[in-house]
User: Fold these one by one.
Assistant:
Number 1:
Amino acid sequence: MEQQFKKRAIIPFIIFIGFIVVSINSLFKGIEHHETWRIVSASIGGFISVGMAGLLVYANYKNGKAASKA
């Protein structure tokens, strides 16, 4: 079961890392070019992606804990 979870989790993890990289890159470009709209949008996008990742980790932890009790 642990191996199956690792196989299912690798693609979302790669996508999450990609979103973080794009967000950080946009943030730096916005700071470099003094574009407030880019800084705000990159910050919001990064915050949303980190929040969604946190919710997914919490849901997987909760489901794994419930499955181990059964």
Number 2:
Amino acid sequence: MVKLDLHLFDWPSRHNVHLTLPLMLVLSFLLHAACAAVFQVAYPRSQPSPERSAGVYFLQPGTPEAAQMAPLLAASDPALFSPGQFFGRDVWKLPETVYVAGFDSEKPALSPLPALVPGPVLPAVLSTGPVVGKQQHIGAKTVDRAAGPSTVLKLGGALAGRTVISPAEFQFSAPPKQGLIPAEFLMAVSPDGLPMHLFPQSSSGNEKLDRAALTYLAAARFSRDASSAESAWGTATFLWGADVDRKKEP
């Protein structure tokens, strides 16, 4: 007969696992409680000061208490440390002071005005022919005398005294309501009277009019200077007159 118990598994006995977990939880609680008891920190409670109301003490003069407090009150007098102590403690008896502002007490010396420099003045009389000199009329031939004088070309420097031959049928134009100021050019003229160099110095206030004046000087011819073999440098100033066309620009 064959034994069947040799072919059966040998199972171990059952462990008491269901009791281990509750025991470990109890042990953990006891350890935490012990640590909390050992390392507990107790902060001291602050003791608030008792509330006190303001008190006023009346000391009668001549009493021992008043004589005891007199040195303390004298040492605590703020008037001892005041800069006005030498006047005494009766501040209402201080001498009156009057404040005077610096702009009322001091009168600054003003610099004198600069000397008046006379500006260019337009001639009051119209010229009917060529003018030989510093100023020459270069405007249109027919100008209404009631409207004002015509444009004048004033030569300065080494060009003073030369005669200008104007280009044929030359007309200046500007906007009707624009104020014009004298336009000045620095130029060099050859001994034969040909313009060699032109440099604008001051504008009339209108760029187109400045270009027209520059074109006029470049096309103009000056009288010859036989006494010099080099170019003469001078200034040419346009004093604008009533012959400037003031028609509205398109």
Number 3:
Amino acid sequence: MDTQLDIQIIPAETSLPIDRAIALSMTIKSFKGRRDVEVHLFRHTWDPEEEEAIDWDKLLSAQGMAEAEAAAGSRRVILEALTVEERDRVVSYLKEHYASRLSAISSAAIPFPVPVGLTALSEMSEGKTVGFIHFERIPHFDLGIALRGFYDLSQHPPIVESEGETEGSGG
């Protein structure tokens, strides 16, 4: 018997300094031969004007680092985040199209100020166990968000019993 989809939307405890501050992930029951694979959802591209319009000194933990190369990944972490409205659209889409394949969807605000020196998901490289779900390749995905999902299969247990249906193609 399938268990119900567990959706956890954790509201921000304080006022957020920017609308683009929401992290979102989903857990796929069975994916590429692994069980309960956590996929971190993020925007992989954005308008350069959006990046230029942000007051980075208000968002990063180290003042005056906004233009420093050491802060580039941390800036991307923020740009990869979703707005509340985007999160709600993605959650609705996932519930409509993938509820039976997912065990959980979770969301929370990223903590501010964001530390300098982080590596953004969009900077990661695909490899043997690490990869991306490319939502733009899904014909019915039309939310107007450049959405990708990052996963690391090495972090999840393999499916040992033979289940004729490993779901998803991943990308």
